[in-house]
Amino acid sequence: MKNALLLVLSTVLTAAGAEPIDLSAKLVSVLHDSPVPCIGAAVIVNGQIIGYGASGVRKKGDPTLVTRDDVFHIGSCGKAMTATLIGMLVDDGKLRFDMPLKDLFKSEKIHPLLQPVTLRQILDHESGLPANIPQDTKVSSRGTNSSPLKQRSALIRTVLTASPSSVGQFVYSNVGYATAGHAAELATGIAYEDLMRERLFKPLGMTSAGFGAPGNPAKVDAPWGHLANPIPPGPRADNPPAIAPAGTMYFSMLDWAKFIQFQLTGEPAGLIQPTTLQSLHTIAHPGTTYSCGWGHTPRTWAQGEALTHSGSNTMWFCIAWLAPKTQSAVLVACNYGIRDEAAKTCDQAAAMFISEYLR
């Protein structure tokens, strides 16, 4: 009966072109006894965005309330977006999933063990590339006048000459996704950020999309990231632009939901081939549980396999849960980065919405 009612709700919303319902009031209780200043969520049922909302304050110590259309930094939940861009370029014939590093970066010196590593291995975190960029590189790339593309080029030139860890084994790598993003730049002659705007954000109507820490340090016009205290927006309030493909993006909850809706339905048609999208959601070989920006895990409420990912730049936190079989999802984000407390609060909200809308 419950699923039938949700199907009716999503059908009515679609037919009427109605605004998704406001979930903000449902989030108020989640913030009780939580250090999280504000939290946002969105719910998709049967391929339709049925609601989204936000609750709390934009900045600890400031009374300005969050709105449901405010933006949240999604960290590594942006990896699925980078993988989707790569899939689009595969469809265009500009890249191949089985393309090795030696062909992706023909003019670069590459460690012999890295030369045969494929683009798909990079997207699956099986490349052997390091997890993160060296601390001295990270500091020097914040606040620099050098373009993100030039920063990525310098980073990739450095990491490709270093000896990798175990190639073919899962080692989570932000550098790997930066490498994939730079491969897209070389294949197209267009900066990664512009590619994302042109190929993904604009076609999906993700008008709130941006890179880096949202907001103005001189005023509280957007949520601020937090550790124990607020972090003023600026270069040091996010990871370096060099690793933007690994996750330095922010969106409103509605716009993030538009991307997830696209992942679940493949609509609007023509942006990516259905077989390519399916390959992004399929593990490459038995024994692995990750593919192209998504973790795979069985869940009864998903009626089978769920796709999931969390994201954090250490000042924000988010979680996505997708049920491909039912084309449904729950997304939650908050502006607090102390992981245990942020994850606990976001998990509580996710469980609440999964129980109410997806079971």
Distance between the termini: 11 Å
Helix-strand pattern: HEHEEEHHHHHHHEEEHEHHEEEEEH
The CATH architecture designation is 3-Layer(aba) Sandwich
Which topology does CATH recognise?
A: Beta-lactamase
Helix content: 25-40%
Supply the CATH superfamily name: DD-peptidase/beta-lactamase superfamily
Strand residue percentage:
15-25%
Oligomer: single chain
The average pLDDT score comes to 94
Number of helices: 13
Number of domains: 1
Describe this structure in words.
- By secondary structure, the chain is α+β, with helices and mostly antiparallel strands.
- Helix 3 (79-91) packs across helix 9 and helix 7 (148-159) crosses helix 8.
- The protein has helices at residues 2-16, 24-27, 79-91, 101-104, 119-123, 135-140, 148-159, 174-188, 192-204, 244-247, 253-265, 274-280, 339-358, and strands at residues 21-22, 38-45, 48-56, 71-73, 210-211, 225-226, 230-231, 249-252, 290-291, 294-299, 304-311, 317-323, 328-334.
- The strands form 3 sheets. It has an 8-stranded mixed β-sheet. A 3-stranded antiparallel β-sheet has the order 4-8-5. Strands 6-7 form a two-stranded antiparallel ribbon.
- The longest helix is centred in the C-terminal third of the chain and has 20 residues, at 339-358.
What secondary-structure arrangement, pairings included, does this model have?
Elements: H1 2-16, E1 21-22, H2 24-27, E2 38-45, E3 48-56, E4 71-73, H3 79-91, H4 101-104, H5 119-123, H6 135-140, H7 148-159, H8 174-188, H9 192-204, E5 210-211, E6 225-226, E7 230-231, H10 244-247, E8 249-252, H11 253-265, H12 274-280, E9 290-291, E10 294-299, E11 304-311, E12 317-323, E13 328-334, H13 339-358
Helix pairs in contact: 3-8, 3-9, 7-8
